[in-house]
Amino acid sequence: MTNAEPDASVGTGEPARWERAAEYFLRWRDGDARAMDELVRLMTPPLWHVVRAYGLDRALAEDVVQTTWLTLVRRHESIQDPQAVSGWLTMCARREAWRVGKQHRRADATEAEALEPHLPAQESAEQTAATDDEAHRLWRAVGTLNERCQRLLRIVAFEERPDYARIAEDLAMPIGSIGPTRQRCLAKLRAELEGAGWGGDDDGEG
């Protein structure tokens, strides 16, 4: 597998980013809640860099990164090769960033031209409508969760190194309960999506 982004581990004797991502993804898929924390810490910085390169402001970029992680929760079963998960996340983030950037018309013609080599194939009007509907249903599913779960899912998406002491204080819960609670919230989201007819067999990069 190739990875277009530089990996700081190259030449250090440490596993490459995509190898570590594959390991964490496998552990999470097998039920290790803490592995998601590791995967988020590993992949959120490069995903953030990719998304910001599309000219999105901070708020829009945060939405795109969060949507990328939620899409992984929903579509993880479509990833047949765990070693492809880093590329899968990157492509998902690029597609969502392009869609959101186009929708909000943030990039001028020069920026769009510079980004062209990195953009996914142009979507048809039908594909764009389907993607918009999918995003709407995804956020609607998140909205069915309680406030604590919604806040924890936002932490999953954005905090490279979550401050567990602050989270525990904000949510009035023991530090040791944060990881298990977050995993239960992800399970609730997955169940909500499956109950709405969203299986894990969507087409995806895998």
Automatic annotation (TrEMBL):
Keywords: DNA-binding, Sigma factor, Transcription, Transcription regulation. Coiled coil: none annotated. One of its GO terms (biological process) is DNA-templated transcription initiation. GO terms for molecular function: DNA binding; sigma factor activity. Gene3D superfamilies: 1.10.1740.10, Winged helix-like DNA-binding domain superfamily/Winged helix DNA-binding domain. Residues 39-99 form the RNA polymerase sigma-70 region domain. It comes from the Bacteria. InterPro entries: RNA_pol_sigma-70-like, RNA_pol_sigma-70_dom, RNA_pol_sigma70_r2, RNA_pol_sigma_r2, RNA_pol_sigma_r3/r4-like, WH-like_DNA-bd_sf. Belongs to the sigma-70 factor family. ECF subfamily. PANTHER family: RNA POLYMERASE ECF-TYPE SIGMA FACTO (PTHR43133), RNA POLYMERASE SIGMA FACTOR HI_1459-RELATED (PTHR43133:SF8). This is RNA polymerase sigma factor (Sigma-70 family). It comes from Microbacterium thalassium.
